[in-house]
């Protein structure tokens, strides 16, 4: 059965209120959001020409902007703020330098099968430290996105990605594939500003 992504603009206000009223008065966590690809590395190219490097930067910037509107914003950093290419090892070194509490790498998926759709979240396979914390962090965000956005869940998965391997020494780390740019519905969905905002808000709420 084909799932339809939700039109979420009306949900945004409700979510915002949840963030404002649902916050606990504890020390604010430091989050490093890794904005995938950049510069000459465009990442996946969508069926509609949309580029992965731009989609993830838009989502990350939306998370930053929304966070700045909170009474008690989280301490959020991005690995890139512009269309620049950062090496994978520099991205992970930043997690160490900042003493981040959580590393979240943002990506979009691509498949030769145009019907492939949905969201995937990865944690490191065979993780010595922060294994439970990583899986829990990924699961929470994935659930929220499926519920709010209507993404089909492809589940929490395990892989040996470099950004996860090098970061999990310092903090919990996850990599998210936020929909398939090779799928018409999801690529079109990600083109719209209000949808980017809704995705950003769902993620921020669970950081
Ligand atoms: Zn990617």
Automatic annotation (TrEMBL):
Keywords: Hydrolase. GO terms for cellular component: outer membrane-bounded periplasmic space. SMART domains: Ami_3. Residues 92-204 form the MurNAc-LAA domain. It catalyses: Hydrolyzes the link between N-acetylmuramoyl residues and L-amino acid residues in certain cell-wall glycopeptides. GO terms for biological process: peptidoglycan catabolic process. CDD domains: MurNAc-LAA. SUPFAM superfamilies: Zn-dependent exopeptidases (SSF53187). GO terms for molecular function: N-acetylmuramoyl-L-alanine amidase activity. InterPro entries: MurNAc-LAA_cat, N-acetylmuramoyl_amidase_3. Its EC number is 3.5.1.28. It holds the Pfam family Amidase_3. PANTHER family: N-ACETYLMURAMOYL-L-ALANINE AMIDASE, N-ACETYLMURAMOYL-L-ALANINE AMIDASE AMIC. This is N-acetylmuramoyl-L-alanine amidase. It comes from Maribacter ulvicola.
